[in-house]
Amino acid sequence: MDLNRIVAQSLRVGVLFSAVLSLLGLSLWAFGGFGSVSVPAVLSVGVILRLASAGDLTGIVYLGVIVLIATPIFRVAISSIYFAAERDGAYAGITILVLGMLLLALYSGAAG
Amino acid sequence: MLVVTPFEVFSIFLMSILAGLIGAVFGLGGGILIIPFLTLVEGVPVPYAVGASIISVVATSSASAATYVQDRLTNLRLGMFLEVGTVLGAITGAFVAAFLDPAILLVLFGILLIYASATMIVGPRIDFPSGVVPDKTAQRLRLGSEYFDPATGTTSRYEVTNTLRTLGISGISGIVSGLLGVGGGIISVPTMNLLSKVPMKVASATSNFMIGVTAAASSSVYFVRGDVQPLLVAPLMVGVVIGAAVGTRLLRRTPPLKVKLLFAILLITISIAMILKGFFPQIVL
Fold first, then answer.
1. Which three-class secondary structure state does DSSP give residue B149?
2. Which of these ranges, A26-30, B65-69, B167-171, B248-252, has the smallest mean pLDDT?
3. Which SS3 state, helix, strand or coil, does residue B157 take?
4. pTM of the model
5. Quick check: ipTM above 0.85?
6. Cβ distance of B87 and A98 shorter than 8 Å
7. What is the distance in angstroms between the Cα of B216 and the nearest Cα belonging to chain A?
8. B220 → closest Cβ in A8, A30, A109
9. Do the domain assignments include residue B1?
10. Could you list the residue range(s) of the whole structural domain that residue B62 is in?
11. pLDDT band at B266, cuts 50/70/90?
12. Region B104-117: what's the mean pLDDT?
């Protein structure tokens, strides 16, 4: 399969999914009478998933944010697999380096 | 806690359609419109404005990049190579921002906008560079490519040069992105075009492609830090996707001079307001 198509499709799916979740969150807010919204003090994927499945506005919008941030990261991961399969050492190396920095940002953000 | 009214959410939504459209057409993330709107018009504290903006920048650029990548306008290899610089810069910028006074960030933002408007008004651009000799790095990484321009109906071949200097400037554009919550396209588009000699439309498309990853790097730092407010980011994520969908259809025809000039005048006005806000934080328009 062609890299252009894979990249384009994965970006499109990720962005649409996060936009739909945002819209869902906003509709919940409207139906709930536009109340004030609280943000959990501790953020983790587990907490967000639990809030989202309970129909909480913050949980649903944050799930959209996670999907959105994951979209380009996924795009880089897919590209490195593609280049590795093509035996293109230089680009496999470049994309793995970028992927490593992205994961480090997630990790260090979570740690700090 | 941040109190957000339905009217504010709706106005953020409307403005983000414009930001998505402009971002898609000019190869930007749209942050240069979102940050001033949130801080000056809505009175949102700077860290929350930056946190919301950087997330929407991921949405704008990923939405428009999907279309450009499919049209084969994007130079995937060049984009992935330059991302090494932008991502490193973005992470650095996002961490440094936490230690800076918001007033300093506002003044820096104003300066960035003045630079952006100057680029828009007097900045030279090369639509179709010719006679470009690729440098050693570009040859080794096979950065030269070709693209189909729907406006002229022809496929053109182009080469890439000054690769390592462009990588260095990409690092700076990444720092600006992480620090100020923008995509950095206002720096990377002219750099790719004028220094690397990449055709203008390819530079815009490749910039959008890179910005998604750049902004994702700093977004994760801001998100985990708790600077992303759900009611600010939700209307942005929906609006910019609509705006980008319209904008990608417009890039096929190059923006006429008048649009660029109006945009530049808008940026100058905003930049003056931002610098004033930096010195007099109580101002809300």
1. strand
2. B248-252
3. strand
4. 0.90
5. yes
6. yes
7. 5
8. A109
9. no
10. 6-279
11. confident
12. 88
Q: Which residues contact A95 (CB under 8 A, 6 or more apart)?
A: A76, A79, A80, A83, B80
CB–CB contact B55 A68 (8 Å)? yes
Neighboring chain B residues of A57 at a CB cutoff of 8 Å: 230
| Nearest alpha-carbon partner for B58 in A22, A24, A51, A32 | A22
Report the domain count for chain B: 1
Task: Note whether residue B165 is domain-resident.
Answer: yes
Which helix (H) or strand (E) segment holds residue B146: the answer is strand B145-149
Name which of B80, B86, B96 to mutate to probe chain A: the one with the most chain A Cβ atoms within 10 A of its Cβ: B80
Question: In the predicted model, what is the mean pLDDT of chain B?
Answer: 88
Q: Would you call B230 and A39 a contact, using CB atoms and an 8 Å cutoff?
A: yes
Residues in B 91-120 with any Cβ partner in A closer than 8 A: 91, 94-95
Least confident piece of the model among A40-54, A63-77, B203-217, B227-241: A40-54
The answer to whether position B155 is within a domain reads yes
Domain boundaries, chain A: 3-111
CB contacts of A68 in chain B (<8 Å) are: 55, 58-59, 62, 219, 237
Helices (H) and strands (E) counted in chain B, each on its own, are 11, 2
Structure tokens at B271: 């930049």
Collect all residues of chain A within an 8 Å Cβ-Cβ radius of residue B233. Answer: 22, 61, 65
pLDDT band at A112 (very low <50, low <70, confident <90, very high): very low
Does the structure show a pLDDT above 60 at B76? yes
